[in-house]
Amino acid sequence: QVQLVESGGGLVQAGGSLRLSCAASGRTFSSYHMGWFRQAPGKEREFVAARRWSGSNTIYADSVKGRFTISRDNAKNTVYLQMNSLKPEDTAVYYCAASRAVTPSTRTYEYAYWGQGTQVTVSS
Question: 30, 78, 107, 121: which has the highest count of C-beta atoms within 10 A?
C-alpha cells in the first residue's frame, strides 16, 4: 500500500524559509515522478513542482520558480520541497503526490497517490 506522509509545515514570516518533507513507502518509486501541489482556502489545488524520482528532470510553476527547489533522498525514500523567500500568497496546504505518467506533470488527475497535506502559513 502506497503511503505518502508530509511534514515540515508551519508558520513563517514573509522572506523566510521552510523545508517540506514527503516520506514515501509501499513500493519502489524509481519509475514514478513526484509532485508538490498546494491549495489555499476557496481555491483549486494548484501545481507547485515535480521531478522524476530517478534522474534530474524537474518542472516548477512560474510563481515559485527561483524560490522553491524539489529534491529527493534515495536512502531515506523522501522527497523535499525547499521553499525560500516565502510570500503571504504561498500560504496553503501543501500536498505531496506520486504519478506513473511518463514525464513530470502539472495535472492533478495524473497523480494516483496523495499525502494528507501540511499547512504552510506565511505572515506579512
Answer: 78
